[in-house]
Design a protein that fits this description.
It comes from Paractinoplanes durhamensis. The chain is mostly helical. Helices cover 64% and strands 7% of the residues.
Length: 100
C-alpha cells in the first residue's frame, strides 16, 4: 500500500476537494463543474460522491481559467489544452525512442 507521503508527491493523486481546488485556481466550483462537462478533467468521486482533484487536474483547470480570462471561450480553451498535452506527450514519446 502506498504511503501518505508517496501519495501527496503523486501528481495524479486526488488530494483536493472541489472547494480547495477552486480556491487554488481562483475560480468558482461551477467553473470546475463545467470543465468536467467539457471533458477536460474527470475528478475522482469520493465514497460520498464529492469531487476530488489532483495537482495535474488543477494545473489543467488553471490553464483553462487563464485562457478564458483572456477571452477564449471554454470549448476552444479545452480543445487547445488537450491538443497541447497530446503534442507534449508525442514529443516525449519521440525523444524516448531516439534515446534507445
Amino acid at each position: 500500500m502506498a504511503q501518505p507521503d508517496d501519495m501527496l508527491d503523486d501528481d495524479d493523486y486526488p488530494a483536493y476537494t472541489m472547494g480547495r481546488a477552486a480556491e487554488i485556481i481562483g475560480c468558482t466550483p461551477e467553473f470546475l463543474r463545467r470543465l468536467g462537462e467539457a471533458k477536460l478533467i474527470d475528478p475522482l468521486r469520493s465514497g460520498g460522491g464529492h469531487r476530488r482533484y489532483s495537482r495535474y487536474q488543477i494545473r489543467l483547470a488553471a490553464r483553462a481559467r487563464e485562457m478564458c480570462d483572456q477571452g477564449t471561450d471554454m470549448a476552444s480553451a479545452v480543445r487547445i489544452i488537450i491538443l497541447e498535452d497530446q503534442l507534449e506527450e508525442a514529443l516525449r514519446h519521440n525523444a524516448d525512442r531516439q534515446d534507445r
